[in-house]
Amino acid sequence: MSKFKIFVSVAIFSFLLIGTSIVKNQTREIEKKIFLMNKNINLKQIDLYETQLDFSYLTSPAMIEKRIKRLDSIQYFPIEYSKIFLSIENLIDLENKIANQNNFNEKKSQKK
Predict the structure, then answer these.
(1) What pLDDT does residue 10 have?
(2) 99 contact partners, CB below 8 Å, separation of at least 6
């Protein structure tokens, strides 16, 4: 009878000892994840504050006025109609012609 009590006591003690270590390790892993998430949240908050500050600065009327003046000083020219492709097939055909011409020229230079 006393051996049975000792066996049960040792079994309960071992179970609680192993259970405690498992719970402790899982808790530590969860705490690490929480710490990393909090760190990530803090970085995102700082980035959000900086972005809001940039937005308020860049959209201020004075900055918009400066940009409009700078853009007005640049002279834009219309694109030539010959450089406008009406479909992607036209662009691919032109690229293939250029590639074939380059290959032909390379072969000519190697023969000489």
Answers:
(1) 92
(2) none
Contact 63, 57 (CB under 8 A): yes
From CA 18, how far away is CA 37, in angstroms rounded?
29
**Dihedral in degrees, nearest 10, Cα atoms 80, 85, 91, 97:** -50
**What pLDDT does residue 11 have?**
93
Amino acid at 103: N
Report whether 98 contacts 92 (CB < 8 A). no
User: What is d(CA 75, CA 77) in angstroms, rounded to the nearest whole number?
Assistant: 7
Helices (H), ranges, 1-112: 2-58, 61-73, 88-111
Task: Report how far residue 84's alpha carbon sits from residue 76's, in angstroms, rounded to the nearest whole number.
Answer: 16
Q: Give 67's pLDDT tier (boundaries 50, 70, 90).
A: confident
pTM for this one? Answer: 0.45
CA distance 52 to 55: 5
Q: Which amino acid is at 62?
A: A
